[in-house]
Each structure stands twice: as C-alpha cells, then as structure tokens.
Amino acid sequence: MNKVHSWLHGRWGVPLVSGLLIVASLVAGQLLDALRWGDALMVAAAVVAGTPIVIKAWRALTARVVGIDLLVSIAAIGAVIIGEYWEAAAVTFLFAVGHALETATLNRTRSALAELIAVAPDVAVVLREGEQVEVPAAQVLTGETVLVKNGAKVPVDGIVSGGTGALDEASITGESIPVEKTEGDQVFAGTISTGGFLQVTATGVGADTTLARIIHRVEEAQDAKAKTQKFMDRFSAWYTPAIIVLSIIFGLATQDVVLALTLLVIACPGALVISIPVSIVAGIGRGAKDGILVKGGEFLETSAKIDAVALDKTGTLTQGRPQLTDVVPLDPGITRDELLQLAARAEAGSEHPLARPIVEAAAELGLAVPGLPEHTDPVPGKGIVATLDGQRIAVGNLALIEAEQATLDRAGQDAGVNDRAAQTVQELAAAGRTPMVLARDGQVLGVVAVADKIRQDAPEMVRRLHAAGVKKVVMLTGDIAPVAEAVGAQVGIDEVRAGLLPEDKLDAVADLQRQGYTVAMVGDGVNDAPALATADIGVAMGAAGTGVAIETADIALMKDNLLKLPEAVSLAKRTVANMRQNIVIALATVAVLMLGVIFGGVTMAIGMLVHEVSVLVVIVNAMRLLRRREHQPVDARTTTDDTPSRPRVAQPA
C-alpha cells in the first residue's frame, strides 16, 4: 500500500493515472462501443497529464520565458478543440513519461553527490570526562578526542592521537585501497574504518570538514552552466517563439490545423535542451567518484581544450623530500664533516626547502648545530648569506659566491678553487643533483649537493597526457638548468624552463598562452598562486584536507597521484565529445521529424513518441560517462634510470 501511495505521489503518479485513463478510453470506445465515454476518458487523460505542463508553461510565461512546455500546451489544447482527443492524450502522456524518465535518469547521473551525502557520518563516539559518549557528529567540538572503531565512519577531520588502523578513503580521494593510519596521520570525515581502533583529535567538524567542502563543490559544479549550455539557453529562447510563428504561418498557408499543431509538437527541442546539462552532470559526477573535483561545466569544457600542461618540479614530478647526496671539500684545511657542519649551521636559519636535508644529515651524523646564526639573509634565486661567529658564510649557487667575492674584494683570489668548484657543480648538476657552493668570507670551502627522487609515476603521467591529446608538457622550476634538464630527460618532459622565480612562472604560463596553447598549471595552490590564476585551468594536486585548494582551484585532485591529471583531461575531453554527440542526435531527430510532417506520414502521436525516444537516447548516451575507465597499471619496474631524449631547456629572460 505504501508503495502504491509513493508511486501516485511521486514522479510516476501523473503518467500512471493518465495511462490508465487512456487504456480505459480505448476499452470503452472499442470493446464496449461507448464512444462518448471513450472520448470523455481520453480528454480526462489529456487533462491529467497536461495540467502540470500548462501550469509550468504559464509560470514560465509570467517570467517572460517561452519554453518547450508552451509548445506542448498549445498543441494539446488545440487538439482537444478540434476533436483530436487521442492526439491530445498521447502527446501529454508521452511528455509526462518523458519528464519522469528524464528526472529519474538525471537523479542517476547525480549519484556521486548522493553517495557523498550518504557517507556523511551521523553520530560520533567522543571521550568526555573519561567516558564514551555518543553524540551527533555536528556537535563534536574542535579538540575533542573521537573514537573510531572497526567498521565505523570517521565523523570528523582530525589527527590520530593514539591507536592504529586502516581507513577506506575512497569517498575523499577516489582511492579504493585502504590506507594504514598511525599516530600523527591525518584522517577525514566520511572515511570508513576497515580494521583497528583509532583515537582522533578533531580539527574540523560539521561544515568545516573536507567531505562537507567536497559536497558543496559538487553541488555548485553540477548546477553551473558551460558556455555551450548558455548558448543553447539563448538559442531556445529564440527557437521556441520562432516555431510557434512558423506553425501559425504553416497552418494559415495549408488551412490544416492538425498539421500546424503537429509541427509544434515535432519541433519541441526537448532533447536539445537536456543534451548538455545531462552530460555535464554525469561528467562531474564521474570525476567526483574518482577524486577529481571540477569547479563547473565551464571549466570542464575548457579542460577539454588543454594542449599544454605546466608542472612544477619539486613536490610534483619529484617526491618533494630532497636528501643530502654529496659533501665535497675543496679547501685542504677543511674536512667533510666540518664542511657539512658549517653548511648545517648556516642553513639552520633558512626556510628554504633545501636547508632541511642538510640540517637533518648533520644531525644524523651527530654533528652539533647549536642555535641559529647571528644573522641570516636569504638571496632569492641564489641562496643564503649567514653570519656565524663573526664570519660571513654564503651557501648557494656560483652567482652568489661570485657576488660575495666581488663584495669582499676577493674576486681575483683562489682562481683554482673557483674552477674546481665550477667543475664540481657542473658534474653534480648533470647527475640530476642540486649543488650548493659554500664560502667563508669569500673563500670557497667546498660543495654540498641534495637530490629529490623522481616519482615513479611521473614518466607514465607524461605519456598519458600525450595520449590524451596534450601537445606540450613543460616543467617550470627555480632549479638550475643542468639539474632541471636531468630530471626532465628522465621523466620525458617536452620543454624545461629553469632558474625561474615565482613571477617568472607566471610569465612562462602567459608566454605559452601567447603561443596559442590552452594551458593547465599544476601547483600547490599557495606558492604557485599567480601562475595558477593566469593559466586557463588551475589544478591543485593532493587537495584532500586543504580547504583553500578545494575552493580556489578550477580542478582539485583529491589524491596526490600524478596519474589523476591525465585522467582529468581525458574525462573532460570525453564529456565534451558526449555533449556534441547529444547535440547531433537532438538536431537530427528534429530535422527528420519536421521533414516527415511536411511531406506527410508522421502524426502528432508518432512524432511525440520518436521525440521522447530521442530524449532517452541522449540521457542514456550521457550516462555512459558514469562508467569507470580503467587504465593499465604503472609498470613497477619503471625507474628513474630510464633516460628519454633530452628536452629543450629554456632559461628565463
């Protein structure tokens, strides 16, 4: 009984009642020979199915919008007036069925959002005054300890403060393999424990969780309109009145009212109107399931045109955790440990990423690094100058050392040491390492070098980008040219632009755009913000837990997985191709049916049936985007020793 009630009051209520009245009319008219009752029931069927259509058309008219509902309303009312009751009932019934199916399938394409909402946790177990208390998830306070048991949903964003376990993070990152969590690891609301017991200190609750931000982004994105969709809306606003005028002229010219009304119904652009939004909703939904958040239809459409991708080196193509690889003393009066200790003491006051591996390496060897330098001056693009025990210590590239020697009037001294330093720098850089020369009061003491391991999936990412239609993959880095060239060669980068300052990256993106490329810039959303803003599409990678990246990037890749980048480009291209297929199907259907009406043979009911079938074809075609496309896994044997042809290296102007 409840099921029947839900059907009658749901999307299928109107077509169900209308369909039963049509059947009753046919029975009364054909079997019982009660033609009057048959006609009355057919009109009733048209009224039941047509009333919502007329109401919708009237509301649209009051808002000065002439839409498809007005065409159907005029045709149905006209058919009743001239006694074509079957035509009126058939048109309104088929339109009601089409609308119900359209709603059902659109809801299906929004399944990603429904699944995200479904995984949102309802309750949380919190430690309060030493006792476990179950409270609504939204009432957890920041800083409270939440207990996550095996099989439970994590109710908050937070940091593991105790215990171990494994979490299924597919709802956030799209990664299906559970992730091991131990003390200090970050966890996200909506993820599910697959084993273990975790104590989590809440850092984000309610609307401040990553899951809530994702749901909000997907909601906005699926409602946002692409450029093509905006054009179609404008097209429909002119097309519908034009069809009404054409039908009136056609009716007056032929003196055939039925033919004019049929033309009205046949020309309904229903499939055309829905062709684009259904593809966009499906494409964005598929991306959300895979951990790819697209800001809206416009950005999805632009992403399909991407033919150049700009990538930062550190943390994108490399792991972002450089390690000390070489310590080369060049002055006979200093040992290897003394050189490393001096470099570590100087770098102790630096915020540069390359300072950390030097300081850590010294600590591992037990070399004392007491306190901070008396003074530290960072030199952008060159290195640092620190004051230690009254001595001026410079650590950086050759340009910094030459500037130091010139400042201290020592440019003419130690020419041999300078030559050996330059040769050492060249050799280390050619090996893909980042060398730094150390000088004390202008006197070169030696060279230290660090290297950042190339990510295993970087070469495969470049290959897949090319396969997805990207013509040029460019690496933008502040590193020196030989190091950048070595990394680019191992990864397969098309062009390397080295020695760039942050503002140079912006210029590099703008230069690619001037060359006619549609550019995607991949960065962390903070340091690369100017370049991300300038690019046609800004991509934030590893955005899980980073609210700023989710809100500001045009595309946010929730998992720090390079292969998600070509997957996003491929998804955008497939979605736009799907939109174009749907437009062709819709226009071809209308054209064929109109020819059928003009030259005879296509009735109002047949035309409406074909029209509704075309709507379903468009929707089913769009739903193909919801299928996951599996890629070949990255070959585990891929190493950073594979060296493709060397890329072209461009120095900053």
Automatic annotation (TrEMBL):
Sequence ranges of Basic and acidic residues compositional bias: 632-645
SUPFAM superfamilies on file: Calcium ATPase, transduction domain A, Calcium ATPase, transmembrane domain M, HAD-like
EC number assigned by the record: 3.6.3.3
Ribonucleoprotein is among the record's keywords: no
A GO CC term assigned to this protein in UniProt: plasma membrane
InterPro entries listed in its UniProt record: ATPase_P-typ_cyto_dom_N (IPR023299), ATPase_P-typ_P_site (IPR018303), ATPase_P-typ_TM_dom_sf (IPR023298), ATPase_P-typ_transduc_dom_A_sf (IPR008250), ATPase_P-type_domA (IPR059000), Cation_Transport_ATPase_IB (IPR051014), HAD-like_sf (IPR036412), HAD_sf (IPR023214)
One protein family per Pfam: Hydrolase
PROSITE patterns tied to this protein: ATPASE_E1_E2, COF_2
Subcellular compartments: Cell membrane
Membrane topology: Multi-pass membrane protein
GO molecular function: ATP binding; ATP hydrolysis activity; ATPase-coupled monoatomic cation transmembrane transporter activity; cadmium ion transmembrane transporter activity; metal ion binding
Gene3D superfamilies cross-referenced by the UniProt entry: Calcium-transporting ATPase, cytoplasmic domain N (3.40.1110.10), Calcium-transporting ATPase, cytoplasmic transduction domain A (2.70.150.10), HAD superfamily/HAD-like (3.40.50.1000)
Residue stretches making up the P-type ATPase A domain: 120-219
Ranges annotated as spanning the membrane: 12-31, 62-82, 235-253, 259-285, 583-602
Keyword vocabulary terms for this entry: ATP-binding, Cell membrane, Hydrolase, Membrane, Metal-binding, Nucleotide-binding, Translocase, Transmembrane, Transmembrane helix
Main localization of the protein described in the UniProt heading: membrane
Region feature (Disordered): 632-653
PANTHER family membership: CADMIUM/ZINC-TRANSPORTING ATPASE HMA2-RELATED (PTHR48085), CADMIUM_ZINC-TRANSPORTING ATPASE HMA4-RELATED (PTHR48085:SF5)
Family per record: Belongs to the cation transport ATPase (P-type) (TC 3.A.3) family. Type IB subfamily.
This protein's name: Cadmium-translocating P-type ATPase
